[in-house]
Write a structure and sequence with these properties.
The two termini are 21 Å apart. The protein is mostly beta strands. 0% of the residues lie in helices and 56% in strands. A hairpin with a 5-residue loop joins strand 3 and strand 4.
Length: 239
C-alpha cells in the first residue's frame, strides 16, 4: 500500500524549522533528503537573538528580533540583488519576547507577543505599518508559533493552553476554532500549514511532530515520529 510520507527533521528545540519531503512510498521505505546550494548571510543591522523568520511571495524576509523586541523587514531588490532593512514593529511599541511570525498575501505581518499573551497584527499603510491586536475568543497563554494560509486564516500554537487555534477572518474580527489535545500535547511551539489545509505542530515536550489532517468532517490528529537511526518516517493515528 502506498502512503504519503513526510520526513521531518528538527532544526532546533524551539522551532518547527524542518525539512519536509513528500513522497509516495511504502511505509518501509527509507527516505533521505540532500541539498546542495550556496549559503549566504542576509545583511541586517544588529540582530539580538533572532527567533523566527517568514518570507512573502516577493522574497522579502521578516525577522522577529526577539531580545531587541522588534520585528524587522528585509526588502529584496531584484535589480540590485540586495536587501533594504526597515522596521515593521518598533521596540517602542512594547513587544515582550516576540516569537512566531507570519505574513499573509496582503502583506499583513503577525507576531506572537509571547510575554503579553497576544498576537499583534501589523497592517501596511502608506509605506509604514499600523499595529493592532488580534482579538481571540480564547485568552492566549504564551503563544509561540504562527502560520497563515492562502485564505488569510491565522493558526496559533497557544503553548501555555496546549492547543491550536484557527482564527478565520470575518469582517474586522475573527471566528475561532480550537483544536485541544492537552492529553497529547506537552509543549507545542512551531506551527505550519500546507496547501491542503493540513496543520503541523512541533511538540518539544514530547519530542514529536503532529499532523492535524484536514478532512471534510474536521481534523484528524496523527503523530509523526522521526526514527533517525533507521532513516524512516512513521505516522501514528491518534484520533
Amino acid at each position: 500500500m502506498h502512503v504519503a510520507l513526510r520526513t521531518i527533521r528538527s532544526w532546533s528545540v524551539l522551532s518547527l524549522a524542518a525539512v519536509c519531503l513528500i513522497q509516495s512510498a511504502s511505509a518501509s521505505t527509507s527516505l533521505h533528503a540532500s541539498f546542495a546550494a550556496a549559503q549566504s548571510v542576509v545583511p541586517t543591522g544588529s540582530l539580538d537573538y533572532p527567533y523566527r523568520v517568514a518570507i512573502d511571495s516577493a522574497g522579502n524576509v521578516y525577522i522577529s528580533n526577539t531580545e531587541a523586541e522588534e520585528v524587522l523587514k528585509e526588502t529584496w531588490s531584484q535589480a540590485t540583488q540586495t536587501y533594504t532593512e526597515s522596521v515593521v514593529v518598533p521596540a517602542s511599541y512594547g513587544l515582550t519576547t516576540p516569537y512566531g511570525i507570519a505574513v499573509d498575501a496582503s502583506g499583513n505581518v503577525y507576531v506572537a507577543d509571547n510575554g503579553h499573551h497576544r498576537v499583534v497584527k501589523s497592517t501596511p499603510e502608506a509605506g509604514s505599518y499600523t499595529q493592532s491586536v488580534v482579538t481571540t475568543t480564547t485568552t492566549l497563554s504564551f503563544p509561540t508559533g504562527l502560520a497563515v494560509d492562502s485564505s488569510g486564516k491565522l493558526y496559533i500554537a497557544d503553548t501555555g493552553n496546549g492547543e491550536i487555534l484557527i482564527e478565520t477572518p470575518s469582517g474586522s474580527n475573527y471566528t475561532e476554532q480550537a483544536l485541544t489535545y492537552s492529553s497529547n500535547f506537552a509543549q507545542i511551539t512551531g506551527i505550519a500549514v500546507d496547501s491542503s489545509g493540513d496543520i503541523f505542530v512541533s511538540d518539544i515536550g514530547n519530542m514529536a511532530v503532529y499532523e492535524e489532517a484536514s478532512l471534510l468532517s474536521g481534523y484528524k490528529l496523527n503523530r509523526i515520529s522521526w526514527l533517525a537511526w533507521l532513516g524512516k518516517s512513521s505516522r501514528q493515528s491518534i484520533f
